[in-house]
Amino acid sequence: MEQFEWMQEKDHNWTDVDMTLLLEALLGSESTYFNTLVVNAKRAYKKVASEVFGDQQRTAESVRGHYECLRKFFSYILNYESITGNGGGDPDVEILDEQIENAQCAGKDVGNLSGTILKKFYGLGWYELFNDSNHQVSYWKEVI
C-alpha cells in the first residue's frame, strides 16, 4: 500500500486502507461517530481509536492528527475546485499539478495539495465521504 509520507507514525505507518477506515468510521453513511465528532471531537477520536483501531494500538491523538490532516486537504480541494470546478474525467497528475499551481497563483489557499493527493481523494472515495450530503455542509464551512 502506498502511504503519505507526511502521515507516518514512528512505528505504525497508516495505509490508504487505514485512512479509508478512519474516514468511513467518522463520516460514512452508517457512521455511529459523526454526531459525537460534531459535539465532542476528542471523545469521537478516542472511541474510534479504541473501537475501530483497537488491535492496531492507534492513539486518539494519532486518529485526530490523521483526520485533521485529511480534513485540511479537503479544504484545499474545495479551494482548488472553487476556481477550476470539478469537471470530472481523469486527468493526469501533471495536468492536476498545473491546475493546482494556477489556483495558487490566483490566490487560492491550496497548501501543499498535489495532483497525486487529489487523485487519491477522488479515487479512494475520501472526497465523497467528506462531501456526503448526509452531513451538513454548514458544519464543514464552520470547521474548515
Automatic annotation (TrEMBL):
Per its record, how is this protein called by name? Myb/SANT-like domain-containing protein
